[in-house]
Design goal:
heterotrimer, A mainly alpha (about 210), B alpha/beta (about 280), C mainly alpha (about 210), B: about 280 residues, alpha/beta, Rossmann fold, 2 domains, 6-stranded parallel beta sheet, 11 helices, C: about 210 residues, 3 domains, about 80% helix
Chain lengths: ~210, ~280, ~210
């Protein structure tokens, strides 16, 4: 019951959706639409799980972990402020207090956190990007050619742009194509294994 | 410790300082940099340019504030281009924090181009689970979005009357920083066959040229450089072109660091080889 | 620029500098900003989900439009919440099974078509002729095949297979090098946008003092 029926559900729905693609009749399309619609609803109702986990973890830290109390309080207060300022649908529109906090707090902080990557990529490039082997040298030279296209050097830039265009559309494209084909085969194999009940990790443990 | 060894073990904070100065200096000493247009960006421009007034363009703005630096400029350039040509636009976002940014951009541009929401463009809103949403939209936009972001039923929006799904729009441009591009390719173009182009971050850019060559994508706008190219094509300079000068200096600094690092590496290795040989 | 906008931009600039302070070392300002954004982001997403997803796809269809069929997926969604209970977590498997089954079934034909068939077709579609395009096509065919051989582990990489595999990894390294070059551009762009924002704020402040 606990494992067999879910496996049966996966098998039946999986096979139905697979054959639906090749049988585009009226009832088949209706089945497809209904299933996508229901999945969206199931998904919407399962998302609060993550929100609850985050809040629960921080309430626990607030109560138990001394050094983290202030920061957990900051997180919970930020959450409460956004909930209280967003109680009406109109609050989701630009110009409201809710969206002003979004623009003033969320956008700058999120954008800046990711902007730190520019420093990290420079540091990583300095420490690790060395021509230790033939493979590393190929990688390094290709990266150089691609990076040089930003630097205006007259006719050298024109030749460099041509080289970059060739690199992106021939060897790079070929490499990524091989990887894409591998990923596509892997995704298909995994989906088949799930439908046949061979892959069961999504069910968790008893 | 010799100077070469010191160079090999340089404190990373000196590198951070150099990169910081590399982007601050162009902020103080501004200069312009020419922008050369690549074919893959030109194809996106030509596609939007060939849409007749009154025909529909579908734009998916699937990105968060984390990547707005690269994707906002291209979103603005495309929307300005489409608005200036009186094209009808349907906008959706499949990113968690996308709605806030879509709201900001569309409100500002609508005022600038005198466009009315619901009449000239529609913002359908946000749904989680992008793959499922794309599959559902392919049948009917009203399945995942019975109402728009503002709670108005789609059937009461003049701009949405007469269009049901992707077969009623000229094409889709997806602006994304994550694997939503793959979902638009597989579940969108793969299942429904509509023309699709993507605007993506620099990190992802190299991964999609195979789809361009196979015809599954009609164009790619790769990162901030692609945004600058699009802005130059529509002749509406924005953040993309403004960033070009900074990119020159920053890239020069990073290239210089890599050269110094490799020089120190080879010089140190050669010296160790000589010491080993002497023994 | 209004006084309110200046104050708001000042707050944004302060929070930006809090995050940048991490470059020197981890510190309370950075931690404060990091936790603040986590709380604000969660709060924003909660209200967004409630108003535009839960209301539009669950509450309105069931309680306003009388579409009681939506009670079934709504119940399946609520069943997911049993994951928090050790004794009742097995109930959530029924909801997960629907999602996984439908998603897997839908994926197979389109994943094969997009990632395999169309890619194979494109690799061999352009004829190999005595021209630049033809030569590039030949290179692409050789490069794709050799890169595929590199990932094929069911046979030892020796002899001809080994040579093809070696060529394949060289091709893959060119791809990764191109990717790195574009990555640098992307990361720098993120930083430049923040610098442009800070520059704009400094100029606005300076203009207040007649600068």
């Amino acid at each position: 019951m606990k494992r067999e029926i879910p496996l049966l559900i996966v098998g039946i729905t999986g096979v139905m959706m697979f054959f639906q693609y090749y049988v585009p009749t009226g009832w088949s399309t209706e089945l497809f639409v209904r299933s996508q619609d229901w999945i969206i609803v199931i998904g919407i109702l399962s998302l609060p799980l993550g929100i609850w986990s985050l809040l629960n973890a921080n309430v626990q830290k607030l109560q138990k972990v001394k050094g983290e109390r202030f920061y957990s309080a900051v997180l919970l207060i930020g959450f409460l402020v956004m909930v209280l300022t967003g109680l009406r649908r109109e609050n989701l529109e630009a110009g409201s207090v809710h969206m002003t906090i979004f623009s003033t707090v969320l956008i700058p902080i999120q954008a800046t956190i990711f902007s730190l990557l520019a420093f990290f990529v420079a540091s990583a490039a300095y420490r690790a990007f060395r021509a230790r082997s033939v493979l590393a040298t190929i990688l390094l030279l290709t990266a150089f050619i691609v990076m040089f296209r930003f630097i205006p050097l007259g006719p050298i830039s024109t030749a460099n742009l041509g080289a970059v265009a060739w690199i992106l559309s021939v060897p790079n494209m070929a490499a990524k194509r091989a990887i894409t084909m591998g990923i596509g085969l892997g995704a298909t194999a995994t989906a088949i294994k799930i439908i046949l009940g061979i892959e069961r990790t999504y069910m968790g443990h008893d | 410790m010799g100077i070469l060894e010191k160079m090999m073990q340089l404190d990373r904070r000196w590198i951070y300082l150099a990169v910081g100065l590399a982007v601050i200096i162009p902020a103080i000493v501004g200069f312009r940099v020419p922008v050369a247009v690549s074919p893959e960006v030109k194809r996106v421009y030509d596609f939007v340019n060939d849409i007749k007034p009154g025909e529909y363009l579908f734009v998916a703005m699937d990105y968060d504030p984390t990547t707005l630096a690269e994707l906002n400029p291209m979103a603005e350039a495309i929307l300005k281009h489409a608005f200036s040509r009186n094209e009808k636009i349907v906008i959706v976002t499949l990113a968690q924090f996308g709605p806030g940014m879509v709201e900001q951009i569309t409100n500002g541009l609508a005022k600038e181009f005198n466009k009315t929401r619901g009449v000239d463009y529609a913002f359908l809103g946000y749904r989680p689970y992008p793959a499922i949403t794309i599959l559902a939209m392919g049948v009917d936009f009203r399945v995942p979005f019975p109402v728009d972001y503002y709670g108005v039923p789609l059937d009461s929006l003049p701009v949405m009357r007469g269009i049901k799904n992707f077969y009623n729009v000229k094409g889709v441009i997806d602006l994304t920083a994550g694997n939503t591009a793959d979902m638009w390719l597989v579940d969108g173009n793969g299942r429904y066959g509509f023309p699709l182009a993507i605007g993506i971050t620099g990190v992802m850019a190299a991964d999609y040229y195979q789809y361009l060559q196979s015809g599954q994508l009609f164009g790619i706008i790769p990162g901030i450089k692609g945004a600058a190219e699009y802005e130059s094509l529509v002749n509406m300079p924005g953040q993309g072109m403004a960033q070009a000068a900074y990119q020159v200096v920053a890239h020069s600094v990073i290239i210089m660091f890599i050269i110094i690092s490799n020089f120190a590496f080879f010089a140190t290795r050669r010296r160790r080889g000589q010491v080993g040989g002497a023994r | 620029m209004t006084a309110l906008q200046l104050i708001l931009d000042g707050i944004a600039a302060f929070l930006t500098l809090c995050i940048f302070s991490f470059l020197y070392k981890d510190n309370p300002f950075y931690k404060f900003a990091e936790r603040l954004v986590a709380g604000v982001a969660t709060g924003y997403w909660t209200m967004l989900l409630y108003h535009t997803n839960f209301t539009d796809k669950v509450l309105t269809p069931i309680f306003v439009n009388g579409q009681y069929i939506y009670i079934i997926p709504a119940l399946l969604g609520v069943m997911m919440w049993t994951r928090f209970s050790r004794n009742w977590a097995w109930i959530s498997r029924y909801s997960i099974a629907f999602y996984i089954g439908i998603a897997s079934g839908v994926t197979i034909p389109v994943a094969l078509y997009t990632s395999l068939f169309k890619q194979l077709e494109a690799t061999i579609a352009v004829p190999i002729t005595f021209s630049v395009a033809g030569f590039n096509t030949l290179l692409i065919v050789i490069a794709v095949l050799s890169a595929l051989v590199y990932f094929f582990f069911s046979t030892a990489h020796k002899g001809a297979v080994g040579a093809a595999s070696r060529l394949g990894i060289y091709v893959i390294m060119i791809g990764f090098g191109a990717g790195f070059g574009l990555t640098v551009m992307g990361r720098v762009a993120l930083l430049v946008q923040r610098i442009i924002f800070l520059k704009g704020y400094v100029l606005n402040i300076a203009s207040l003092f007649g600068g």
